[in-house]
Design goal:
The structure is a homodimer of 557-residue chains. The first copy, chain A, is an alpha+beta fold and 557 residues long. Chain A has four domains: 118 residues, Uridine Diphospho-n-acetylenolpyruvylglucosamine Reductase, domain 2; 117 residues, Uridine Diphospho-n-acetylenolpyruvylglucosamine Reductase, domain 3 (2-Layer Sandwich), CATH 3.30.465.10; 117 residues, Vanillyl-alcohol Oxidase, Chain A, domain 3 (3-Layer(aba) Sandwich); 97 residues, GMP Synthetase, Chain A, domain 3 (2-Layer Sandwich), CATH 3.30.300. Chain A contains 19 helices and 18 strands. In chain A, the strands form four sheets. Chain A has a seven-stranded antiparallel sheet, sandwiched between helices. A five-stranded antiparallel sheet of chain A has the order 5-6-10-8-9.
Chain lengths: 557, 557
């Protein structure tokens, strides 16, 4: 497979041998401690696997043999490392469990199929034996989307790890589509496509550790979704194995032949079946890229420019506007992690401070042929200047671009020092962006401050707008806080509930690209309506009558 | 209501007092007769209503009274004119029935609700009384989508005419969305929006006689869909009355909160419920428009340019490429219907003929702000010239634009003279456009020639490519033929079957924007797959357990 399971952190982000991006003594530690008003940063290491007792495997040897008969003996794993790695995803919430050594939800076995046919055979077997199935790609879900829950605590559960299914089945260079197996990791996918001058252009922050099938299942978005589209936009068609049999969706470029069922696959989160391969829209590798920064005196002015650029039909890859808090964090925290850039950025920051008390940074990313990028640069530059923004050149854009997958690596060392960090995201109509930004920020800030470990401690909330659409845009919140070490799960739940309640009560979707999983499932009915939930249940009942597929995700048990 | 029912042709297109665009003695008649190799053009008038016996109304006075109690006495109609107008849509196939005086499928009554609440009450009553319901907007379906079939010949059937529901409920100028009642006709919708400087930009050929709800239900496309989007793209959310209750869909600009259920509404064709109001994406009225023509030496070169323009991210409203046959028809047939333009066009045509034996006309339409239109004009012009096309200026573009809703008006006079004319449309991937164009053209041509009324007669097939997407484009076929007056329905069925079989066997969708209705339903399973049909049936069973909603449409009975 692309990535050797043993080389991955089972209880953190990325490779086991990942260099610590915030080593002891780095200046960020003092800044964080002061910002969060903590007197000391406690030492809170994760429990090593040697100290953890795994739950017993509920599968009998006959069942293990049955799986082995389908996929081969070596493709059925029951060892502790595999079960720990596949127990939970990579959310802050998940890490609280796995770092504490709570692996109660570990699957009983992990099965690695190598073809749609094998997947279908496994599902048929699991239907017959009444075993729950968790489809798993990179396992990078941050909403509990691949956690190995059964329908009940007694349920037998296998995880279906799809990463051996990574072939490109077909490329149509004229139609610019490719049919690819769903288990392929981001880097392998782009490596194979780019060798032919092609790209999907889907680069979520999880890019290095997530898979094509997962992007579709979670309705994910890459950072350049304005150019390349969210998963539901670049999805052409899919082939799923389901407990009721194979489901191959229609694939016309556009059609009036009834509802488009591909839009049921995108966002299905493994609850309807296993996505085995997908046909996607691809592009020529862009001739050139241009990422540059502008500073706005306030958030509202930046939002208005983001909207104007979208409504003017200018071909942008990304427009990302940080609020004042995130802009400040980007400068302070990011300055020291890239050597020589530090002083340059600090100088720029001083200039910003002269420009505005609390400047907001907008990064505009352009990709395409040279003429189009030049045209788009001129037009976006005009719009920014007319709105009173300060152009600060390509430095911040390049810096962001080169570090765009790095920030998750900072979480593990923070977790080791009593600090919590989590994110959540939404989307809403343009007329509501400002209000929603204020309300969610306030709700998270209040929840953080009311649930810190010690009186006087405080949390930090920051946000950016990205992924813009004709009718609205996404908002992405990051929050950092001192953990309440005596009730970490309860602390997280209170913060999550506060933010989610405000989102659904104020016209924000519960998630723009992370998905629903278990963590957002309590709020889904508010968004889809009772009838919507009824329809989703009717679809599931048709494809998965026994409810074995990814129990508790999307729809509550 | 917007359009007085009595002013509309119950057995043809448009207003009863429509001027005949091809009067007796017009030069087109000789050209058509010669082209189709007919010795004479027979006189084949439609049966006047006075000579037709309507089927009896199956509803009892108690049932009529129950409807009247909901919507008011004057909003329940059972007179012959209303029943005839609502019996069938406007396809060639439909006209064969209604012109012959066969109104066997006329609804028993027509009910005109004025609110979603009234619609819901009517559905509740119909569920209780087991009466079939046909949702009806403009009635312009060309696939049998609103024909008043019951579940059986004995079924009681009402048509729910929604054209009293035409209010704009809300406009959000920041998010550029509007919530509008579904029964509003195209012209009224644009009149109301444009009074505020806004537009939906959805202009199907049926624009004048079709409604917002119908566009969504049929997943329709406007001629400028490249800029404004097909219905499923500009649909933000919808509110439907269903036999199981009200269904309001989610409305985020983008979301990862499970499958997007709006994509089940688009294309539902009244089989799941009645679309009462929809929220749509709107635009500023474009500052400028530019429609101009280019000639290509062959069809393949034009297709390649259409693809290149799409993949280059150039903001176009329309790229429409006629094949050689349609280009020839456009010149010959269209020349005489606009007075002074005739000689100019003929001169142009001579020039074209020097350029190529069988030139293909491409019309490129641009809309937007002046700078964008200028940029797009330069880029498209460059691409066309590099491909060896001949620029022929804005004349053909303007001519097409001003006559873009006219051609359906020519059908009624042709029907009066023994001539049949029908259209069908599809979409396929770019790599398949050329092949599919050839195969469908050949299949229709063969079917036409094998099923003419008299030996030696022949039909004409022509096509254009429009509505382009990253992965493919639509193909629209028009065919003209001498009717076999002794078996008109059989003749049409053979032609339809030949074309549809070739479409589904060769990677074309059965319909790009006309919808499925009854006429395409036999081919839907081929396209959606058995599992897809099962899922659509499961959804219908949930929302419409008794199957009263628009029986036989989309899904076969």
């Amino acid at each position: 497979m692309t990535i050797d399971r043993q080389s991955l952190r089972w209880n953190g982000w990325g490779p086991a041998n990942q260099e610590n991006p915030i080593p002891d003594g780095a200046p960020q530690w003092a800044w964080i401690r002061e910002t969060l008003n903590m007197t000391v940063l406690p030492t809170t290491p994760a429990k090593p696997m040697a100290d953890i007792t795994m739950p017993p495997c509920h599968l009998g040897t006959d069942e293990i043999s049955s799986f082995a008969a389908i996929v081969g003996e070596n493709q059925v794993r029951t060892d502790d490392y595999e079960r720990a790695l596949h127990a939970r995803g990579k959310s802050y919430h998940d890490l609280l469990y796995v770092r504490a050594g709570d692996l109660a939800v570990a699957p009983d076995a992990i099965v690695y199929p190598r073809s749609a046919k094998e997947v279908q055979a496994v599902l048929t077997l699991c239907t017959e034996k009444d075993i729950a199935v968790i489809p798993f790609g990179g396992g990078s879900s941050v909403v509990g989307g691949i956690n190995a829950h059964g329908r009940s605590a007694e349920d037998k559960v296998i995880t279906l790890d799809l990463t051996l299914m990574e072939s490109i089945l077909n490329i149509d260079r004229v139609s610019m589509t490719a049919r690819i197996e769903a288990g392929i990791y981001g880097p392998k996918l782009e490596e194979k496509l780019q060798a032919q001058g092609l790209t999907l252009g889907h680069y979520p922050q999880s890019f290095q550790y997530s898979t094509l099938g997962g992007w579709v299942a979670a309705r994910g978005a890459g950072q350049q979704s304005n150019r390349y589209g969210k998963a539901e936009k670049w999805l052409v068609s899919a082939r799923l194995a389901t407990p009721s049999g194979l489901w191959a969706t229609e694939e016309a470029p556009a059609s009036a032949a009834g509802p488009n069922l591909n839009q049921l696959v995108a966002g299905s989160e493994g609850t309807l079946g296993v996505i085995c391969d997908v046909t996607i829209k691809i592009h020529e590798v862009p001739e050139t890229k241009d990422y540059r920064g502008y500073l706005f005196k306030d958030f509202a002015a930046g939002v208005e420019v983001s909207r104007t650029i979208n409504h003017a039909d200018i071909p942008v890859a990304m427009v990302r506007l940080s609020d004042a808090s995130e802009t400040h964090f980007f400068q302070t925290f990011g300055a020291s992690d890239s050597g020589g850039l530090k002083s340059k950025l600090q100088a720029a920051y001083l200039k910003w401070k002269g420009f505005a008390t609390d400047p907001c940074l907008m990064l505009i990313g352009l990709e395409g042929d040279k003429a189009t990028v030049k045209w788009a640069k001129e037009r976006t530059s005009d719009i920014c200047k007319k709105a009173g923004a300060l152009s600060i050149g390509s430095g911040p854009g390049d810096k962001w671009y080169h570090g765009r997958f790095n920030s998750p690596h900072g979480r593990d060392p923070m977790m080791d020092r009593g600090i919590g960090i989590d994110t959540l995201e939404t989307a809403t109509r343009w007329s509501n962006i400002g209000t929603l930004h204020e309300k969610v920020t306030a709700a998270i800030q209040t929840a953080l401050n009311e649930n810190v470990g010690e009186p006087g401690q405080t949390g930090v909330v920051m946000a950016h707008v990205s992924h813009s659409y004709p009718d609205g845009a996404s908002l992405y919140f990051t929050f950092v806080f001192p953990r309440n070490l005596s009730d970490e799960i309860g602390q997280w739940q209170k913060i999550k509930r506060a933010a989610s309640d405000v989102l659904t009560a104020n016209g924000g979707t519960i998630t723009h690209h992370h998905g629903v999983g278990t963590d957002h499932a309590p709020w889904l009915a508010e968004e889809k309506g009772a009838m919507g939930i009824t329809l989703l249940k009717a679809l599931k009942a048709q494809l998965d009558p026994k409810g074995i597929m990814n129990p508790g995700k999307l729809l509550k048990l």
